[in-house]
Amino acid sequence: MNPAVLIASVYVFALAAFLGYQVISRVPPLLHTPLMSATNAISGISLIGSLVLAGAVHYPLGAHILGFVAVTTATINVVGGFGITDRMLKMFGNRKPEASAAKKEAVQ
Amino acid sequence: MSLTSYFMEATYLVASILFILSLKMMSHPETARRGMFLAEGGMLAAIVGTLVGTQIVTWVWIIAGLTLGSLIGAWMAVSVPMTAMPQRTALSHAFGALAAALVGIGEFVVKASEMGTVTRGALGFEVMLGALTTTGSLIAAGKLQGVIAGKPVQFRGQNAVNLIIALGMVTSFALFWIHPEAVSFFYTMLGLAFVFGVMLVIPIGSADMPVVMSLLNSYAGLAAAATGFVLGNNVLIIAGTLDGFSGFILSVLMCKAMNRSITNVLFGGFGAVIAEASSANAGGVMREISIDDAAMQLAFANRVVFVPGYGLATAQAQHACRELGELLEARGVSVKYAIHPVAGRMPGHMNVLLAEANVPYSSLYEMEQINPEFPSTDVAVVIGANDVVNPDARDNPKSLIAGMPILEVDRAKSVIVLKRGQGRGFSGLENPLFFKSCTTMLYGDAKSSLSHLAQGVQHV
Known about the structure:
The complex is a heterodimer.
Chain A: H1 3-24, H2 32-43, H3 47-55, H4 61-91, H5 97-107
Helix pairs in contact in A: 2-4, 3-4
Chain B: H1 3-25, H2 29-53, H3 60-79, H4 85-111, H5 117-145, H6 158-178, H7 183-201, H8 209-231, H9 234-258, H10 262-268, H11 291-299, E1 303-308, H12 310-314, H13 318-330, E2 334-339, H14 349-356, E3 364-366, H15 367-370, E4 379-383, H16 392-395, E5 414-419, E6 439-443, H17 446-459
């Protein structure tokens, strides 16, 4: 890694940390579980590193296999993480208890 | 740079912006769900960008991995119950960290010789954090699921052993950094990191899980960020850092909510050192109340506050609780839910459980919001919570939990405690709240007690 790239990367890291602090401290405790599951899904972005390992040129078979396992686990996080976050956030959507109770009675 | 590379970098930039926006929209339940769609879009863009922009020759492994991962992920997303959310999250920390560690090992296998000093440092960091988070999270998941005993595993000289392992790990890291050609240092570091992850989590009791979960969250994110440094990939750095900082912020919040330091949680082994610390005003009589009397008390109250603890979740009583709440509201009683930050086994867990039972989030109150309201509350109903309502934390400086912020239910006009039996909670501490004159106890399984109370209220 040449120094210019390194410095740029450190900038990105520091700014992301600062921004992350600003943004995440505004998330209410109500949503801390979905937050954890969402950031987990987002950090599943390491999938893109795994993809390269699993299929890029000039890589030996061993690397491809490591890549395959990494692609699998990262995909589980992305798909599972976003899926479950959505399931949770959907539950926080129903703001009108009267409406939902009425609907429930109608179903029964 | 070719055109496809520019395209790839553009998708990464878009993904980074969308990720940040989605977390910003997480600040309100109304916008949170839409925000996640943005993040999903960003993720899809980055994946497509990578596949277009990298010279892919073998598609077999990629397609196999994506398919298998999607199937397992989708199955988990649909089938995991909300009570098992902590286990699932711990497991996903393990998966994320494992992916980071494997990418690091792969990079090491392929191009260790051409790496510069900085890249090698980042790589070591990535693999070390990734490996220890993987095993640590697996142990945490096992404890939460009950596969491994939740009790802290402790032995003489544990901290010394851990220190030696940690030193060995860091030394191998340093040696690998200095002598890249000595492959064995790298693998020694990897092995020790796996062991250290286990050692780090086994001494921790299930009550401290919210802190550990957040900490592992942070490590998993930092491992991903380190991957970004190794691959020179900014979107990885950004996403990993966001994840890492989110975990860090949550750990700090959880520690504050228990009035403990992170070091104390990691090396203190809280659950095990329960000295026979008897509280100053322990003793006295616990007064039992019958279902009918309790129902009567609730039905004629003006303000009722429910205080759910982990006992509510283990008894699967959240639906019964909501039904009782709705019946009371129908009678014109104001019903609120008081949520302590460490109620449940991960940050925010109790909110999710109650939301699943259709309790509107506008009835859920945080500790700071609800505490001033207890003096004007007629009945506080404590369901399977113990330490978070223990007045000793506030009044008795000698108590083991002294200084831990609590829900001040003892200031309410009357308190009904739903409890399985007369025993102490998992912390083993005596709770003077149970002996106060305004407190009555309702023994039995929380779920059946609540549904009997609901019947009782209906008949009033």
